[in-house]
Amino acid sequence: MFKAKLSSRAWIVVFIISSIFFPGFMAEAADRVHTVAANETVESIARTYHISPAQLMNANGLPDNKLYAGQKVKIIQTASIPAAYQWSERGKRIADYAKTFVGFKKMAGEETPANGFDSSGLIHWVLSRQNISIDRLTVDGFYKQGMDTAAPKAGDLIFFLEKASSKVVTAGIYLGKNQFVHSGYGAETVQVRSSTENYFGKYKMAYKTYTPKGEHIVQSGETLKGIAEKYGISMNAIKNRNALPAAGLIQGQYLQIYSSPLFPFYVNQEAAYDKAEAVIKYAYTFRGFTYAFGEDDPTLGMDCSGFIYWVMKEQGLSVKRGSAEEYFSLLPKIENPKAGDLVFFRDTGARRGVTHVGIYLGGGRFLHTTEKPGVHISSLSSGYFAEKFESFGQAEYLMN
What we know:
single chain, alpha+beta, 6-stranded antiparallel sheet
C-alpha cells in the first residue's frame, strides 16, 4: 500500500515537473486536429481553443490568416517555443502547411484550394504561399531547378522517375520518415503517402531542396569555386552579384546566381552612399539567419542593429557597434530615404523608445531581423510597422 502511494505520488511529481520545465513533453497528449469549416477564421479557431492566433499560424506554417474550408490544422495548446529560422526551419513550415491540404481534391492542371491541385500545382501553391519566389512549373521543371540533396529533410521535394529513361513522373512535398504529401497518381485527393508503398516501387526516387528562383543555399564544406562550376558561371560573377567579402562563405547563405536580383527593390533607386548597393546585396545573403539579442555575428545570430553593423563592417565601412536607439541618436532624420538609409521603429515588443532598425531598400520595403523569422524583408505599409514607424535616418552619418 505504501509503495503504491509512493509510486502514485512520484508520477504526479514527474507530471508537474515535466509540464513546467518541458512543456513540449505534454504536447502530443494535448494536441488535436481541427477541420476548418466555412467562414471560420484564424481568430475564431484560436478563441475556441484558448490559444493565440500567432500560435495557431506557427503550428501549421500558415503564411497569412487565410483559411480554406476542409483544411486540417493542428491545435497545439502548449507554450510556443521560438525556433531558429534557418533554411531547415523554413522546410518544416513548408511541410506543416502542405499537410493542411490533405483531403483536397486532385484536379489536373489546377493549383488552388478552390479548384484542387495536381502534383506540381500543390508544390507551386505551398511554396509560393511560403514567400518563395517560384514560377508555375511542371514536375519536370521543379526537378531541373531544385538543388540535389543526399540528406532530405521536411520541406524538400521528392520526385519519382522512370528507371529506364529517368523521366520525371510525379512529385510531392517530403515530410520525413519516407512520408510525403502528394496530389497525383493513385489517389483522388491530396494524401500523405509513403515512398515504401508498392505503387511507387517501380520508380527511382530523387530528392531536391527547392531554393528561391535563381539562388543557391551554401552547404557545409562548399567553396565558391565549386558553386561556380555547378552553375557554369565565373566566381567573380557570384562575388559581384552578392558583394561577397574576402572572408569566404557561411553555411546557410543564399547566393544570388542569376544576373537579375530576386528582390529588386533597390534597383534604379538612388543609393544613400557609395557602398549602399553592396551592403544591400550582401545583407540579402543572410535572409533566414537567426535572431539573437546582443549578437552581431551570423554564425551566432544577430539582433537588428548587430545585423546592420555586420554587413557594413564586412563591406569595409568603419562603423561603431551600437543599439537601434544609439544609431537613431547619431543620424539626421530625413523625409525621402534612399536605398541603404536606415528606418527606425518605436515601442516594439515589450521595450519602449526607439527599439528597432532596418535597412531601407526602396519601394516601401526594408530588410531587418526579428525574433521569429530572423533576417527577412518587410513592408512599411503593413499595419504593425506603419503603427510603430518612427523615422528614416541618413545612413552615411553612421560611418566614421
